[in-house]
């Protein structure tokens, strides 16, 4: 899906790692949420509450999911992150992403 219709966009940005990862939240009519953002090159460790589906639009990164080895991801591509877990990223080039939160 190239665009989203009938959504509410959060005015305030989500800013992590001193601005090296940023996003904006969008809320759908059914209450589901996604974030649209940018990741700059670097190494990061993040955690989840809900299951997440990370859609990489452009860029290259490596991800280490729980109990797995590093895996390279080149956009366009996607991967899933389990709920209540930590994962690591090595962002190799600017990454444009959309993250879906699955309750």
Automatic annotation (TrEMBL):
Concerning Pfam families, the annotation shows:
Ppnp (PF06865)
Q: Name one GO cellular component term.
A: cytosol
**Which reaction(s) does the protein catalyse, per the Swiss-Prot or TrEMBL entry?**
adenosine + phosphate = alpha-D-ribose 1-phosphate + adenine; a purine D-ribonucleoside + phosphate = a purine nucleobase + alpha-D-ribose 1-phosphate; thymidine + phosphate = 2-deoxy-alpha-D-ribose 1-phosphate + thymine; uridine + phosphate = alpha-D-ribose 1-phosphate + uracil
Matching SUPFAM superfamilies, A to Z? RmlC-like cupins
Q: Which GO terms describe its molecular function?
A: purine-nucleoside phosphorylase activity; pyrimidine-nucleoside phosphorylase activity
| Keywords, ordered alphabetically | Glycosyltransferase, Transferase
| Enzyme Commission identifier(s) | 2.4.2.1, 2.4.2.2
**UniProt function note:** Catalyzes the phosphorolysis of diverse nucleosides, yielding D-ribose 1-phosphate and the respective free bases. Can use uridine, adenosine, guanosine, cytidine, thymidine, inosine and xanthosine as substrates. Also catalyzes the reverse reactions.
The entry assigns this protein to a family as follows: Belongs to the nucleoside phosphorylase PpnP family.
Q: Which HAMAP family match?
A: Nucleos_phosphorylase_PpnP
Q: Which PANTHER family does the UniProt entry name for this protein?
A: PYRIMIDINE/PURINE NUCLEOSIDE PHOSPHORYLASE (PTHR36540), PYRIMIDINE_PURINE NUCLEOSIDE PHOSPHORYLASE (PTHR36540:SF1)
- Put simply, this protein is called Pyrimidine/purine nucleoside phosphorylase
Q: Give the species this sequence originates from.
A: Malaciobacter mytili LMG 24559
The gene from which this protein is expressed is ppnP
């Amino acid at each position: 899906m190239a665009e989203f219709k009938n959504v509410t966009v959060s005015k305030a940005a989500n800013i992590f790692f001193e601005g090296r990862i940023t996003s904006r939240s969008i809320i759908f009519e059914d209450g589901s949420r996604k974030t649209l953002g940018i990741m700059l090159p670097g190494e990061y460790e993040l955690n989840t509450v809900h299951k997440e589906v990370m859609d990489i639009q452009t860029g290259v990164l490596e991800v280490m999911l729980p109990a797995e080895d590093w895996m390279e991801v080149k956009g366009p591509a996607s991967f899933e992150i389990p709920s209540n877990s930590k994962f690591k990223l090595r962002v190799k080039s600017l990454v444009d992403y959309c993250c879906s939160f699955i309750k």
